[in-house]
Design a protein that fits this description.
With about 250 residues, the chain is α/β, with parallel strands linked by helices. It has one domain (about 15-140, about 185-235): Decaprenyl diphosphate synthase-like (Undecaprenyl pyrophosphate synthetase). About 45% of the residues lie in helices and about 15% in strands. The chain has 8 helices and 6 strands. It has helices spanning about 25-30, 35-55, 75-100, 115-125, 145-160, 170-175, 220-235, 245; strands at about 15-20, 60-65, 100-105, 135-140, 185-190, 210. Strands 3-4-2-1-5-6 form a 6-stranded parallel beta sheet, with helices on both faces. Helix 1 (about 25-30) crosses helix 2. The longest helix has 24 residues, at about 75-100. The chain is globular.
Length: about 250
């Protein structure tokens, strides 16, 4: 049997991979089922992605789980998604902890139902000492909202005298983002064939490699993540320089 992991260069791994998990609804429609059927199968794809990322050696994995715009979806779908979130955390937190995975959340967690917040807080507390990999869930997340909150926090610090306008630079702005202390994603993957980033980590994706696949999220498996990493490793990352400068 061919080992699909053999083609990956373990010395050239992205430290941080971010994924926009798209296509659950369309996958459900293809199977003549309701959208929640797609979301339930999407949870299985999440488990596969986390397990595969660990196997590869990725240190940070961020999953765009629920955007602020998703609150505009039908109430029945939102309620179902929140129920899935709670049940998935309850079911998986013990395994996450045993694998040394630390759970983290970015986004406006206060928007979530009380039950979801409680499960998340308990899982975060249980796994906070782990360091094999950090799993970041972007929940009720919007990059524009993240910017707004960052500017408000900075303005508050200016008014209190903690910061000056002259302090503004890229490194300082980093300190006010919800991902502070986490390396920026070197690779962003989006499933379902859509070619946009949908208000996701606009600051952090400045120099990320973007990888788009037609696979719908519930069909995104182990080999698909390996292929994305392999594609990343065969790109030249110039950061504004020329190929000649990189030598």
């Amino acid at each position: 049997m061919v080992d699909i992991f053999e083609k990956i260069d373990k010395n050239n791994l992205p430290k941080h991979v971010a994924i926009i998990m798209d296509g659950n609804g369309r996958w459900a429609k293809m199977h003549n089922e309701d959208r929640l059927f797609g979301h339930r199968n999407g949870v299985d794809a999440v488990k596969t992605a986390v397990r595969t990322a660990m196997k590869i050696g990725i240190k940070h994995l961020t999953l765009y789980t629920f955007s602020t715009e998703n609150w505009d979806r039908p109430k029945a779908e939102i309620d179902g998604l929140m129920s899935l979130l709670v049940s998935a955390i309850k079911r998986e937190v013990t395994e996450l902890n045993s694998q040394g995975i630390r759970l983290n959340v970015i986004g406006n967690v206060d928007d979530l139902p009380q039950g979801a917040k409680m499960e998340l807080n308990e899982a975060i507390e249980l796994t906070e000492a782990n360091n094999a990999m950090q799993l970041n869930l972007a929940l009720s997340y919007s990059s524009k909202s993240e910017f707004v909150q960052a500017f408000k926090s900075f303005y508050t610090d200016v008014l209190s005298g903690k910061k000056q306008l002259e302090d503004i630079n890229a490194a300082m702005i980093d300190q006010y983002m919800q991902t502070y202390g986490i390396p920026d994603p070197e690779l962003m993957i989006r499933t379902s064939g859509e070619l946009r980033i949908s208000n996701f980590m606009l600051w952090q994706l400045a120099y990320s490699e973007l990888y788009f696949t037609d696979k719908l999220w519930p069909d995104f498996g182990e080999e698909d993540l390996v292929d994305a990493i392999y594609d990343y490793q065969n790109r030249e990352r110039r950061f504004g320089k020329t190929s000649e400068q990189l030598g």
